[in-house]
Write a structure and sequence with these properties.
alpha/beta, Quinone Oxidoreductase, Chain A, domain 1, Rossmann fold, 2 domains, seven-stranded mixed β-sheet, six-stranded parallel β-sheet, binds zinc ion
Length: 386
């Protein structure tokens, strides 16, 4: 079958400090070890489903910011993505698909079912997995980074990572519409995990600020709206993305260089400040000086963006405002997938307009390039009719 494969040179940075397992398995934070990445079409073997697994025909797959960060490099040629990566690997992880073959012992799926998939494959037996922190599993495999991804005709997945789309397709009256929305569950799940699982959520009637209006920030805007925020202010340097934020439920969307975001949040909230601030820009060195001035009493900042750079922050404000900063990685556990699907089924998460670019499967490489200009919401690859 045809697949888009990422390759790069294994050249750990001199200061990388890798442990023995990382050196042996060559699975390590990509930005520390993988240099000069390439993406190309390759012919790879059709995978066969093992016990508890199914063979899936991919129908839609979104381009993730992490894919973009694998495509892009720093001055020394290292990829920007900092998650655990083992190459070569078929890329792509934000997918929806159709079950075409069952392995032995599959309990909950049948051939023909439509599904979407979690992309973080916790081992299920370590302490992190068993205490309910599967996103922090030390043996985590990530679809499209260390496990075979979905920019391919087929992929194999264990049924415990899959969610059935039958209720969504029924409610929408369209399999195609369900497959499109379902490809957005993974990025929105990252926002859900940060805002509702890792952090004390902003209460209904609270004030929310969102820095960065890529798909995860836009998901945060839509979720804050669904959760009853009194007001949402969003900030992004790209005008197109500010327009999308307004469409998805923000009350204000501004270029952070053309206003003082802390003042905007204070003014919007009548002086109270933000009950929740989501950092999805991955630019904490620029956003923290605003965020530290914008906390409401008891306010929370959720850090979702990734950057290898240190950020200046005056921690004294956490004392004065009894505020908190939490980080979150991933989209697994805590009910992220089923709850987002239910919001979608009931029309409470109108996020379809987030998809601003659709390209056929044959144009997957163009889709990756397209994502680097950061003008789109979600770039979606469509495998139907190709
Ligand atoms: Zn993603
Ligand atoms: Zn585990």
């Amino acid at each position: 079958m045809k697949a888009v494969v990422m390759r790069a040179d294994w050249e750990p940075r001199p200061d990388a400090r890798l442990d023995e397992t990382q050196l042996r398995t060559r699975k390590a934070p990509a930005n520390l070890v993988w240099r000069r990445p390439t993406f190309s079409w390759e012919e790879v073997g059709l995978p066969a489903p093992g016990v508890g697994e199914v063979l899936l025909r991919i129908r839609r797959c979104g381009v993730c910011g992490s894919d973009t960060h694998c495509y892009e490099t720093d001055d020394a040629g290292y990829v920007l993505f900092s998650g655990p990566t083992r190459l070569p690997c078929v890329v792509g992880h934000e997918y929806s698909a159709e079950v075409v073959e069952l392995g032995k012992g599959v309990q909950n799926l049948r051939v023909g079912d439509l599904v979407c998939a979690e992309g973080m494959l916790g081992c299920g037996v370590c302490e992190a997995c068993r205490v309910g922190r599967p996103n922090q599993c030390p043996r985590l495999e990530m679809v499209g980074f260390s496990a075979p991804g979905a920019f391919a005709e087929y992929v194999v997945a264990n049924e415990r990572f899959l969610w059935n789309l039958a209720p969504l397709a029924d409610r929408l009256g369209s399999a195609a519409a369900a497959l499109e929305l379902a490809a957005l569950v993974e990025p929105i799940g990252c926002a859900f995990n940060g805002m509702f699982v890792s952090s004390t959520p902003a209460p209904p009637g609270g004030w929310v600020g969102v820095f960065g209006c890529g798909p995860i920030g836009l998901g945060a805007v839509a979720l804050a709206r669904a959760a009853g925020a009194a007001g949402i202010a969003a900030f992004d340097v790209v005008p197109e993305r500010c327009a999308l934020a307004l469409e998805l439920g923000a009350d204000i969307a501004l270029h952070p260089g053309e206003c003082d975001p802390a003042d905007v949040l204070r003014t919007m909230s009548g002086g109270w400040g933000a009950d929740m601030i989501v950092e999805a820009a991955g630019a904490a060195q620029l956003t923290m000086p605003f965020i530290e001035r914008a906390f409401a009493p008891g306010g929370r900042m959720v850090y979702l963006g990734r950057t290898g750079q240190r950020a200046p922050v005056l921690l004294d404000v956490l004392v004065t405002q009894a505020a908190g900063i939490v980080g979150a990685r991933g989209h697994v556990g805590g009910g992220c997938f089923p709850r987002i699907l239910r919001l979608m089924e009931r029309g409470r998460l109108p996020v379809r307009s987030m998809i601003t670019c659709r390209l056929p499967f044959a144009h997957t490489l163009e889709a990756l390039v397209q994502s680097t200009d950061r003008r789109n919401g979600k770039v979606l690859v469509d495998y139907d009719g190709v």
